[in-house]
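Memo subject: From amino acid sequence to discrete backbone structure tokens
Action wanted: Derive the backbone structure tokens from the amino acid sequence.
How to read it: Take the token row as a discrete description of the fold.
Attached in line: The record itself begins immediately under this heading.
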Amino acid sequence: MSEATKPRPEFRNLNVFRDLTTYRLPLAGWTSILHRVSGALMFFLLPFIIWLFDKSVSSEISFGQFSAAFSTGLWIFPGWFIKLVVLALIWAYLLHILAGVRHLILDVTHRTTKPFGRHTAVVVLGLSSLLTLVLGAKLFGLY
């Protein structure tokens, strides 16, 4: 090792109080964590998803109730809150499916280099954010 290059710090055991404030998780790590968070969010909101599906396909009256939940609200929750929950589900689904495809590509091609991982993480986060914005604009009636 030459004297011009500094040795990189090596983290074996992270100290919560000392190391976590300076530790920078790479973008691929954030994508992996968000993949798990989106899967958990979809799992815990599964009863709400099933209720939405049931209300949307049962009958014309139940579809009217489904549509009214987005405009007038549901129980104690206003309509904008229902839309935010659905927007969170849209984001979770999009990020989860795109990150899952990313993981499949990494597994199939065996390309586990840092630049490829960083590039695919940027694509997943960017594409899921863009699609969430477009579908969120449609959900909130902007077009």
